[in-house]
Amino acid sequence: MSATLKQGLSEEVVRDLSATRDEPEWLLERRLDALSALDDLDLPDVIQTPGRRWTNLTDLSFEQLVDPLNQSDETERVTAEGVEVLDFETALDEHEDLLREEFGATLDPQSNYLTALSAALFTTGTLIYVPEGVDAEDVKIRTEMRSDSLFSHTLVVTEESASVTILEAIGDEGPTADDEGRYFSNLVEVAAGKNSNVQFGSLQNLSEDAYCYTLKHGVAADDATVDWIEGNFGTQITRSDVETELDGEGSESQIVGAFFGHEDQHFDVNARVWHNAEHTTADLVTRGVLDDTARSVYEGVQDVGRDAWDTSSYQRENTLMLSDDSEADASPKLIIKNHDTEASHSATVGQVDQQDLFYMNSRGISPRQARNMLVEGFFVPVLEEIAVEEFRDDVQDLVHERLD
Amino acid sequence: MSSDQDHLQQTDTEERFDFKKDSEAAYAAEKGLTEDTIHAISDDKDEPDWMRERRLRALKQFQAMPMPTDWPGQPDLSEVEIDEIVPYIRPDIDTRGGVEDWTDLPDDIKDTFDKLGIPEAEKNALSGVGAQYESEVVYQNMRERWEDKGVVFMNMDQAVQEHPELVKEHFMTDCVPPSDNKFAALHGAIWSGGSFVYVPEDVTVDMPVQAYFRMNSEGMGQFEHTLIIAEEGSEVHYIEGCSAPKYSAFNLHSGGVEVYVGENAHVQYSTVQNWSKNTYNLNTKRALVEQEGRMEWISGSMGSKATMLYPSTVLKGRGASDNHITIAFAGEGQDIDTGAKVYHNAPDTKSTIESKSISKDGGRTNYRGLVHIADGAENSSTAVECDALMFDNESTSDTMPYMEINESKVDVAHEATVGKIGDEDIFYLQTRGLDDDDAKQMIVSGFIEPITEELPIEYAVELNRLVELEMEGSLG
Asked: Where is this region: Disordered (chain B) (predicted)?
């Protein structure tokens, strides 16, 4: 692979970027490692069925939007008592050792071409550090993108028996003037210590000329819980991968997804969990609505390893189609290597229930209003899982907005 | 009926699967695959030019296509060396196209089939038997009353000679063209034997038509072709059984099955596959279903080293329907990658897929399935259900369904569960006086019952015996 970027992609550009940010040598080295790995890395795998590659990343020209030295964002960080919520520069000043140890330790920057590009060029990001025993709620990070391209890296570290709920919201200042759109790359890694508890909610509502790639990867230690909530409403094309490795005994993960596509939007949404230890539990729940000519691709993977005795693993995916021209692809996969497992998955695709509509019409509710109520109701199982109230309201508002 | 079962149950199963006969072949193609091989096959069969042309074209396609290697988690095919396969071996008997009477068969061949219980099944329940020994159908029989109604059941090679128009129109054209996949192309080049079934308009064949395929020469591939044409309003149940003796060198089986289901017609295709544990079983099976027609695939995959088999149905006409029932059993060293493909290309079409798999002793089963609902296929519905049972911690059970939906007025549901054999169930059965092995066997029999109840009694018995045999191997 080679990139055609606005300013070209060279060692010099990366050195320049690192120097203006006054970064330590080890971070520059890591950027350069990622840069030199680019040539050998491929784009993330996408679902292929006979005659169709569902998300064609190779043909996208988003790379032309990438302008490494002109990244800009406006980010508001709301912390909670006992938690360190720091932008990357401050984190380097105050917790350099922690960053050096944990940065890129959970999420391999060389997972694929897009992660390596992100690791080489990121300019914004947040460290959320929750010390032992701290129980915190409602950490918020609101990012507004101000440039044609932005690479962000967020690291969450929770010490033993710590607990935190986080909301990350991503938006921009509106469609770009030249109609070319933007590219937002968002890597998030969560290292959950023993018996700690993390809920990381992400709400992406970029303009509909934007492209977004996000990989969120968490590792749970003994008895730890890593929960993800992934909401996608904006962009023309989003590729989202949300993953948890259950490495510790008794660890748990829930991955909740919600998307609502309309017009020509395309969502490629993936949820994966690896059961690597005994007594682990996972629950994957994704609900999506498609209107107009929107498309969705979903892959869910539950991988139960040879040593994962006493595993419970569940997966549900439901897609609601509001338009005849929308398209959906769903592939819930089970890979089971330990027989002491209780696993199930299910997926459905359908339209608004005609009987429900008829009933509501007979009660004097107009067809349009009835449909909207049913769509809002469709998202309830997902909303119920969201711990941050503000996040829940935001998702509800976005669904409501889209239905009008 | 009970006496037949008794007979089959008494058959020593180990003996049934472990014997092998000395091969006395009249003609064995040179190893390797070239145009010369194709000409040799075609000459030996005295085929018309159009069939020879089709074989040569398929060979070109085969040579041009790469081996499939990029499917997620697919079985390892690196040991499949096409050149090592002797594609065509004809048993050394005088009669071409089969003999009329069972007693005319050479003793050793008869012996082989006797051990498999073929004559009993044929005599008592089946309306016709085409038994394939090596690559040629050596035994053909069709009850007179079906022939009077215009039903044709014959060796595929014979059909090329006797029903050229029907074969020309339907043989690897619309249903499974050689370009479909590499092994379909290979099949198109060197196919041999198999069955041709033609059921005229409004005729119902109310006893199952059966064919039995076996491989009996080391290093030999089997490439039989089955073509079933069910005209408007007709009905037929075709059964294919496969079993092979155990060999050390690998075998390749790459069969082709094409089914044309006419308007309002109903075809059921049942198969119990028990290739020996060194066979690569790479088949292409497909049905095209017209308006209001119905296709049913009932498949049991027990044997082989690796199986890649996804019977597919194209629902072409309004109101057409499909039903898949599959069971896969993978023991030590086996990789059974099987499933179903259904294309909903017309409104009001329905499909149901029910898959059951059992893995033990390090075996791997995978359900790999695709349901495609085309734009405009309104009011289509599909329900997929996969259940997997795992015996131990060396085994693997995967489920990889794909659903492609291009139409909103549909009802699509997929469900899957994986679990181990319930300790409580075993405990309960033990308190009723069953030992551990019998309890497990009983649970497995219950698990696969939805499949066995769809099969005629002889096949249900055979399937149960095969499962029993597999279970004995591990639990004894």
From this structure: 1-47
Alpha helices by DSSP H, listed for B46-85, are 49-64
**Positive or negative: CA dihedral B168, B172, B177, B178:** negative
User: Min CA distance, A302 vs chain B (Å)?
Assistant: 10
**Cross-chain residue pair B414–A339, CB shorter than 8 Å:** no
Q: Average pLDDT, whole number, for chain B?
A: 78
Q: Are B405 and A335 in contact (CB < 8 Å)?
A: no
Rg of chain B over CA atoms, in angstroms? Answer: 21
Q: Provide the residue range defining the domain that includes B173.
A: 2-475
User: Which of A306, A346, A350 is closest, CB to CB, to B415?
Assistant: A346
CA B400, CA B164: separation in Å to the nearest integer? 41
pLDDT attached to residue B103: 61
Question: How far, in whole angstroms, is CA A105 from its chain's centroid?
Answer: 18
Place of tokens 């290739």: B275
Classify burial at B446, counting beta carbons within 10 Å of its beta carbon; exposed 0-12, middle 13-18, buried 19 or more.
exposed
Kindly give the interhelix angle for A354-362 and A367-378, rounded to the nearest 10 degrees: 130
The rounded Cα B168 to chain-centroid distance in angstroms is 23
- Check B416 against A345: CB less than 8 A apart: yes
pLDDT of residue B258: 96
Q: What is the C-alpha separation between A178 and B60, in angstroms, rounded? A: 51
B396 chain-A contacts, CB cut-off 8 A: 335-337
SS3 A386: coil
Q: What is the DSSP letter of B204?
A: B
Q: Do A329 and B404 touch (CB under 8 A)?
A: yes
Distance from CA of B400 to the nearest CA of A (A): 5
* Gap between the Cα atoms of B223 and B229, Å rounded: 20
ipTM over the 0.85 cut-off? no
Global pTM reads: 0.83
- For B285-314, write each residue's pLDDT tens digit: 999 999 999 999 998 888 888 999 999 999
- How many angstroms separate the CA of residue A4 from the nearest CA in chain B? 28
Residues of A in contact with B399 (CB under 8 A): 332-334, 345
Q: Which residue of B has its CA nearest to A321?
A: B408
Please give the single-letter amino acid code of residue B86.
Answer: V
Does B403 sit within 8 Å of A328, measured CB to CB? yes
Q: CB–CB of B276/B306 below 8 Å?
A: no
Q: Residues B380-422: pLDDT tens digits?
A: 999 999 988 888 888 899 999 999 999 888 888 888 888 777 7
What mean pLDDT value characterizes chain A? 91
A345 contacts in chain B (CB < 8 Å): 399, 414-416
- SS3 assignment, position A372: helix
Give the minimum alpha-carbon distance from A181 to chain B in angstroms, rounded to a whole number. Answer: 27
Own/partner pairs, A50-58, CB within 8 angstroms, 24+ separation: A50/B370, A52/B404, A54/A268, A54/A295, A54/A297, A54/A329, A55/A237, A55/A239, A55/A266, A55/A268, A55/A297, A57/A239
State how far the Cα of B355 lies from the Cα of B309, in Å rounded to an integer: 13
Which tens digit of pLDDT belongs to each residue from A356-367? 999 999 999 999
How many domains does the structure of chain B reveal? 1
What is the residue type of B373? I
**A–B: how many Cβ contacts below 8 A?**
117
Give the pairing type, strands B266-274 and B235-243.
Answer: parallel
Task: Give the C-alpha separation, A397 to A79, whole Å.
Answer: 24
Closest CA to B362 of B250, B241, B277: B277
Chain B positions contacting chain A at CB under 8 Å are 73, 370, 372, 375, 388, 390-393, 395-420
Give residue B379's region: left, alpha or beta (phi > 0; psi -120 to 50).
Answer: left
Token pair 């099969």 is found at B455
